[in-house]
Amino acid sequence: MESLDLDAVDLALLDQLQTDATPTNQALAARLGISPPTCLRRVRRLHEAGLIARQVAILDADRLALALGHGLHALAEVLLDRQHQEAQDAFEARAVAEPCVQQCWRMASGADFMLVLQVRDMPHYLALAARLFTQDANVRNTKLHFATRRAKFETKVDLAHYQQAF
User: Fold this and answer.
1) From CA 45, how far away is CA 90, in angstroms rounded?
2) pLDDT of 16-32, one tens digit each?
3) Rounded-to-integer distance, Cα 151 and Cα 8, Å
4) 46 and 25, same structural domain?
5) What is the CATH number of the domain that holds 89?
6) What is the gyration radius of the CA atoms in the chain, in angstroms?
């Protein structure tokens, strides 16, 4: 992965796109005070460099819950029995393949993995737990934390302190 030189305009573009990726190129250029061709060229460069991994719609979980039912949100700490690279890679591959696993973090201390789970209900959680935890002989222990309320959810990376350098 090669280094990419970013200036204040690049960071402002990234900041704007994190907040709302739907404006037209012309609107985005006007918002930042740059020409539309420059804006388009820079956004393409940021995509090609992999800084913009993907553009998605973020669903409102509370409104979705009204339509479909709340579901269960949980954080799972997973401790493996064997710590070697192949064992960790194997568990990670199985975890990221599960659609109910929203996030999978490999940890440096304590638990080996932290998973963010979202399932429809307890029977679906139990089926997931059987597939992911119980049937894996290398999973030594799991500790579950069921969420009762989400106080904050943000996908935006705070770029403000980076912009001060420019």
Assistant:
1) 34
2) 999 999 999 999 999 99
3) 31
4) yes
5) 3.30.70.920
6) 20
Contact 118, 73 (CB under 8 A): yes
The total of other beta-carbon atoms located within 10 Å of residue 77's CB is 16
Residue-wise pLDDT tens digits, 54-103: 999 988 877 888 888 778 999 999 999 998 999 999 999 999 999 999 99
For 64-98, give the DSSP string. HHHHH---EEEEEEEEES--SHHHHHHHHHHHHH-
Burial class (CB in 10 A: 0-12, 13-18, 19+), 28: buried
Note whether residue 3 is domain-resident.
Answer: no
Residue 65 and residue 142 share a domain = yes
User: Hey, what amino acid is at 111?
Assistant: A
Structure tokens at 9: 């305009």
- Convert the pLDDT of each residue in 41-63 to its tens digit: 999 999 999 999 999 998 887 78
Is 153 within a domain? no
Q: Which domain holds residue 102?
A: 61-146
Two structure tokens written together for 24: 């037209």
